[in-house]
Specification:
This protein is mainly alpha-helical. It is built from 20 helices and no strands. It is flat. It starts with a helix and ends with a helix.
């Protein structure tokens, strides 16, 4: 929550600055109507992106679903209350995307009363409309299509969507051969984009028309669309939600019937440790809650974050760079690349670890098989090593791997030697490893193998709490501040020194923590009762 608030405040200042500083350019492109069109579309997409998986978790994978459906509550009441709890985040996204840039522009241009009314209505209507539409889509998918019960199909769909998004992005971005994008040109591009897709978010589209013409008819249409979205949601929830929630009590994975030869091949003895690792992976992939949180979301957001950073680095760098001729362009690029690398590094770490539950639930997810875990003639430390290995493999791919990819993309764009990407990657590795060990130790303290519903364990996680506090309190301000400080030196590459220093510090902390995972884990397995 703290990170989201800080990020929202920072973005609000940036958007407000853009709206005020470049009011003339925005006025030429269409003024308040084009701002509402673009910002409403951005807010709608953001709410859908955050809400899609969040609503799946809260409406279908929450640990109290089985209790709620037995109470004298209608399915509409249950799902509506779940939805209202998400509206706070939706309004937060809508505020950041719509209000600051709109206020910055209206203050700079002294816009009329219709513009102010339109901004307020946009802020109220768009989050509500996007939230109810997202919830309706979620219920339809979970109740009718049912592909989300099959984790393999879900994974393939996620990979396919990401591949399409990346292809579309690089196709459109390839038309611009310049490494730097002028802010005015960027505004022109966004204005054209907003005009073309004005009615993709129809509520925002009709409100922007109302802001331009003052037509009451367009305002009434937007109100009618909002009411229709709520009504559609209530109808779908009444008839389809309960069935979908009950269907999530069972899971499925793709597979086929094996013949004797194939069965013998699968059952080949690969050694105790490798067999335990395979068992841990299978436990994660067969449960939809684990699959969504630890695979789909973890791989989805880092890729999208890299794409967004790749598309905005040049324009943001141009916005905040010193005036032309003030310093050597190469120095400016290196200075900016240090700041960008720090930011993308922590984004790549924070987002996946917020959803991860692999390390935290490593012991709890044994459930009914815990007595077997205690009785088989395998050293507890080997079993702990298998659990730790699975958590490390998945989480390092989703953090360290994407930090490396993001750093390489930034350095290629900015013309910095690619091998400098090893600095943020090393820091990301040590930080992630330290956070995994802390998360696993925290999971030992709260371990419970006496559960009836596996979804209740799959949905529990610490949110990488330790990593969260370290990241928010120490990591971001220290690396960014020191990186920028050293970057203003005659040798801007000195900005990489803080990354190496922090990597060494985290590495020193990581080594005893990793040993403690085995000692505490062995002791917890011996004392935990089924």
């Amino acid at each position: 929550m703290f990170i989201f608030i800080v990020g929202g405040v920072m973005l609000s200042f940036i958007f407000g600055y853009v709206g005020y500083k470049f009011a003339d350019s925005i006025e030429m492109m269409g003024g308040v109507p084009i701002i509402l069109s673009v910002s409403g579309l951005v807010a709608g997409i953001g709410i859908f992106a955050f809400g899609f998986f969040s609503l799946i978790n809260s409406m279908y994978m929450s640990s109290d679903i089985e209790l709620l459906i037995t109470l004298p509550l209608s399915s509409t009441q249950i799902v509506l209350l779940r939805l209202l709890s998400f509206l706070g985040l939706a309004f937060g996204i809508g505020f950041v995307a719509i209000i600051p840039i709109s206020i910055g522009f209206t203050v700079a241009t002294s816009a009329g009363i219709i513009s102010w009314v339109s901004i307020i209505l946009e802020f109220i209507f768009v989050p509500i409309f996007a939230t109810f539409i997202t919830a309706t889509v979620v219920i339809l998918l979970m109740s009718i299509v049912r592909i989300f019960r099959n984790v393999d199909v879900l994974r393939y769909i996620g990979i396919g969507v990401l591949f399409i998004l990346l292809c579309l992005y690089f196709f459109f971005s390839s038309s611009n051969n310049s490494n730097q994008v002028e802010v005015n040109s960027l505004i022109t591009i966004l204005a054209g984009f907003g005009t073309t897709l004005q009615y993709v978010d129809p509520v925002s589209g009709f409100i922007s028309v109302f802001a331009a013409s003052g037509s009451i008819i367009d305002l009434l249409i937007s109100i009618a669309l909002l009411a229709a979205s709520v009504l559609l949601f209530l109808i779908v929830a009444k008839f389809l939600y309960l069935e979908g929630a009950l269907n999530m009590q069972s899971t499925s994975v793709s597979g086929k019937i094996l013949n004797d030869e194939e069965l013998n091949k699968v059952c080949t003895n690969n050694g105790t440790y490798k067999s335990l690792v395979k068992k841990e992976f299978n436990m994660l992939r067969r449960n939809p809650a684990y699959s969504l949180n630890n695979f789909v979301i973890g791989f989805l957001w880092p890729i999208l974050a890299v794409v967004l950073m790749y598309g905005t680095i040049s324009s943001v760098g141009k916005m905040f760079a010193p005036s032309e001729g003030a310093q050597d362009p190469t120095t400016i690029s290196i200075r900016f690349v240090i700041m960008s690398t720090c930011l993308i590094m922590f984004i790549m770490i924070l987002i996946p670890m917020t959803y991860q539950s692999i390390a935290y639930s490593s012991l709890s997810r044994e459930g009914n098989s815990f007595p077997i875990m205690k009785q088989i003639p395998v050293d507890y430390k080997i079993q702990i090593k298998a659990k730790l290995t699975v958590a490390e493999r998945i989480q390092h791919i989703q953090t360290t791997g994407y930090v490396l990819l993001g750093a390489i993309i930034i350095y290629i764009i900015m013309g910095v030697p690619v091998y400098f990407a090893l600095c943020p990657t090393l820091l990301a590795f040590t930080f992630t490893e330290m956070a995994i060990c802390m998360d696993m130790l925290n999971g030992y303290k709260n371990a419970s193998v006496n559960w009836d519903n596996e979804k209740s364990i799959a949905s529990k996680n610490s949110g990488a709490m330790f990593a969260f506090y370290i990241l928010s309190a120490f990591g971001v301000p220290i690396v960014c501040a020191l990186g920028l400080f050293f970057a203003f030196d005659a040798n801007p590459y000195l900005g990489l020194i803080p990354m190496l220093v922090l990597a060494v510090i985290f590495g020193i902390i990581m080594i005893p923590l990793r040993k403690r995972v085995f000692v505490k884990g062995d002791r917890r397995i011996r004392t935990l009762r089924f």
